[in-house]
Specification:
163 residues; mainly alpha; two-stranded antiparallel sheet; 2 strands
Length: 163
């Protein structure tokens, strides 16, 4: 049965849709130093609440850009890799942020993210936190956020993103 359906599927895929109608599957929103962010990335980050902000496409894109720029810096002088216990704790923290009774596995599936990809994301969160602690941790707490924001603005300017 599968053998008979395969040619039909190929033919159906080759038939163009109505003239003038195109469906956008995905679009590159930002590309820098080999890193790209697509509309799917923005949607996925919003669905899984992986970045903070008001949830608008612009806000999520900006948060993803900042994350990638920071990760580029982190990779230059990587901190020690977080332990499995730290990753598990970060995962519990993220899951708790989704609200009680959240179907995490279902949310990941709907957003097209595997468990492993989620763990990589959360591991990167911990690497970013360690890097920021190392870089700005000696500053008084009252100055830390402002200096971090200033540093991120500098990263954005070097990447041609302005403020």
């Amino acid at each position: 049965m599968t053998i008979l359906l395969a040619p039909v599927a190929v033919i159906a895929a080759a038939v163009p849709g109505p003239p003038g109608q195109q469906a956008e599957i995905d679009r590159v929103l930002w590309s820098f130093n080999g890193v790209i962010i697509t509309t799917t990335d923005v949607w996925q980050a919003r669905q899984l609440r992986l970045v903070s902000g008001d949830g608008s496409d612009t806000d999520v894109l900006r948060a993803l850009q900042n994350r990638q720029l920071i990760l580029m810096e982190v990779r230059r002088v990587p901190p020690a890799a977080p332990g499995s216990g730290d990753i598990a704790a970060r995962r519990r923290e993220w899951e708790a942020s989704l609200g009680p009774g959240a179907d995490v596995r279902g949310m990941l599936t709907k957003a097209g993210m595997s468990e492993k990809a989620c763990d990589v994301w959360l591991t990167d969160d911990l690497k970013i936190q360690a890097y920021l602690r190392e870089r700005f941790g000696k500053l008084p707490e009252s100055e830390r956020a402002a200096r971090t924001d200033e540093w991120v603005r500098g990263l954005r300017q070097r990447a041609g993103l302005g403020k």
